[in-house]
Amino acid sequence: MSIQVQKPPLPINHVDAVKRSCKELSQAQCIEVTDEAIKRLLLSPSFLTTFKRVSNHHGLKFPLNFPSVLSELNLLCVMSLLNFASGYRVPLHEQTGRGAWDNIRALAFGLYLSSATGQGDLLSAKGMKSVTPHQVAELMSVKIHVERPHEELQGVTVGELGGHIYELVKLISTTLNETGNILEQSRLPDLGTFVLRSLKSKHPGGGNASVDDILKDLVSAFPAFQDMAMVNETPVYCFKKALFLVHAVTLRFGSSSSPPFPLPDTSQAPVFTDNVLPSILVHLGVLDLSKAKDVALRGIFPDAANDVKINALLAVPENTPGLGSAITKPNTAPPKEGPVLTSDQAYILRAAAVDACEKIVGYARSLGDASLPDDQKWVKDITLPQLDMWLWAVAKDRPDYRELERFVLRDTVFF
């Protein structure tokens, strides 16, 4: 079972609630973001030389032949629904050599390919409703048994269901079961059909559905998208997976001159906050936890305030590998486990990342033409989703970034 977090009421305006609540929580927790730290990042060699390349590698074009646009849309929606497991990064690396997102992508492909080979449509509402933990484990090629000594026979070990990966597999199957059940109750064949209906709906004030309209539909219908909590009796809203879904659909299908369905403008959507964004922002000197109200947060990344280390990270090292090779080549050794946080602490840092990214883009917009050479004027036009993609992908782009610890929260289906 996942952590039972006290839930605030659903907001009226979801996008505004994310931005406003994250700003208020970050300020209340005394997490600082200075203009100097933002400027140092934006004008750093690391940012300037990698942003355009790295932020465009979204990995949302799949090497599959789809029978219809709806089939591809449905796969993308289910992948977004399952876009969590960050807290299991290390055990996943130990078993598969891949991180959370790559494992979720592989699982989604497995669900799709199993359906295509006559094993039942596991991406349909009916299929999702009936998926078992053992099916998920088989598709992910992971072991869900742990060994323990036999209680009576010395030197004999027995296997039993358990361990972190079994915990993750149960979270995935429960999420699929719950979502499939809701879709069946709504008499919808799959999640893609639900999202397509939302995309085609009209905004109450006229025009196409907005990001907020689609967020409202997703969050109100499915608990797996209700990424919100009460922290110190104050509501905070993140909606990471729902925001990711909307932007992923827009990114994937919006490149066509004639998109197959109406798409919202996601350029002003909040970032899709997880454990990577705040951790990287701390390591790159943007998020300052030294005065955090939660004293335990001040030291979770002991070396993060070291200016020498920050400057080295913001420089361009020699022989930096390209993004593609960095992502596809498995590490020979698993990454080091980061600090394990409570749910409240995770929400505090995730909220701080949302607000920090708003400030970064706002600062970039304020830069005058005279302050930037011609080949850097593009910095003024960066968007929040592009910044999100850069922060997430650059964490995989160079060996020293890969070694940076990310905080850990297990037993959650939100990131």
Description:
This protein is mostly helical and 415 residues long. It is 49% helix and 4% strand. The protein has 18 helices and four strands. It has helices at residues 14-28, 35-42, 45-54, 69-81, 89-96, 100-116, 125-130, 133-140, 164-185, 191-200, 211-221, 240-253, 276-283, 307-314, 323-328, 343-366, 384-394, 399-402; strands at residues 145-149, 157-161, 228-231, 234-237. Strands 1-2 form a two-stranded antiparallel sheet. Strands 3-4 form a two-stranded antiparallel ribbon. Helix 1 packs across helix 16 and helix 4 (69-81) crosses helix 10. The longest helix is centred in the last third of the chain and has 24 residues, at 343-366. The chain is globular, with a radius of gyration of 21 Å. It starts with 13 loop residues before the first helix and ends in a 13-residue tail after the last helix. The relative contact order is 0.18. The model is unreliable at 321-331 (pLDDT under 50).
